Amino acid sequence: MVKRSSSSNSDSLVGGSYEAKVAEIEKIIARIEAGELDLAEVFEQFAAAVESLRQCETFLQQRQQQVDLLIETLKDE
């Protein structure tokens, strides 16, 4: 059985969980699409969304490596 520690969800995500980052990205996209931001804020928020996406991608890659390792371990047994 694999134990999940409370810190494992935020190992590579600065400032929150994967789900929180996705919600943050969705909120940024909604604000941009709604025209709520001036041009400077659009660029600033877009940059923040891109950084959050990079963090999410890294998080998912790390978790995929863990899953692959667990599967390999099961095959060896």
Q: In percent, how much strand structure appears in the residues?
A: under 5%
**What's the assembly state of these chains?**
single chain
**Model regions low in confidence, pLDDT < 50 over at least 5 residues:** 1-10
Helix percentage: over 70%
Q: How many structural domains are formed by the residues?
A: 1
The N- to C-terminal Cα distance equals 14 Å
What's the overall average pLDDT, rounded?
Answer: 86
Shape: rod-shaped
Structural class: mainly alpha
Query: Could you give a short account of the major beta sheet?
Result: none
Can you count the beta strands?
A: 0
- Figure out the total of helices: 2
GO biological process, one term: DNA catabolic process
Subcellular location: Cytoplasm
EC number: 3.1.11.6
Protein name: Exodeoxyribonuclease 7 small subunit
Descriptive tags:
exonuclease, 77 residues, 2 helices, Exodeoxyribonuclease 7 small subunit, hydrolase
Protein architecture, described:
With 77 residues, this protein is mainly α. It has one domain. Helix content is 71%, strand content 0%. The chain has 2 helices and no strands. It has helices at residues 18-34, 39-76. Helix 1 runs antiparallel to helix 2 (39-76). It is found in: Cytoplasm. One of its GO terms (molecular function) is exodeoxyribonuclease VII activity. Belongs to the XseB family. It catalyses: Exonucleolytic cleavage in either 5'- to 3'- or 3'- to 5'-direction to yield nucleoside 5'-phosphates. This is Exodeoxyribonuclease 7 small subunit.
